[in-house]
Amino acid sequence: MNIALFRNLFREKKLSLSHPRLLTYQELSNAVSPLSSLELYQNLLKKSKKIGLTSIYRSLGLFESLGIVFKITNGSSVKYKLCELENHHHHIICKACGNVVELNFCDISDWSKKVTEVTGYQVVDHQLNFFGFCKACIPLQRSQSAER
Ligand SMILES: [Zn+2]
Ligand SMILES: [Zn+2]
Ligand SMILES: [Zn+2]
What we know:
By secondary structure, this protein is of the alpha+beta class. It has helices spanning 3-12, 19-30, 37-46, 53-66, 109-119, 137-147, and strands at 69-74, 77-82, 90-94, 100-103, 129-132.
């Protein structure tokens, strides 16, 4: 999501675009790979930006609830990636290197129908993550399993 859309979203939702929120957004948009709140904090400190870890943490929580960032939990590590796609979408995460790719399609209407059939619920939302190995990590996985 680019800065113009980001600003628009905050305006639409009547949320204030505070300094910590803007800094957190900017740092995430500069990142080449997903970052933890501590890494974001350290990056901003290096640039002599005045921001507290708690503010970053809170901003990330807000971004996540707005669907702007994707939270990647791997054991005890939690990292965040700024979403490029603006509308509803899904992600696939590499189990080896943690790379994330956004999927610009969602084809689960049959599944939703089935859920309604079985439960009687009206489905209004869903979350779905895919996990696997990226192209770079597949050969490494193969050689690792060959060693065993
Ligand atoms: Zn995303
Ligand atoms: Zn990988
Ligand atoms: Zn979907």
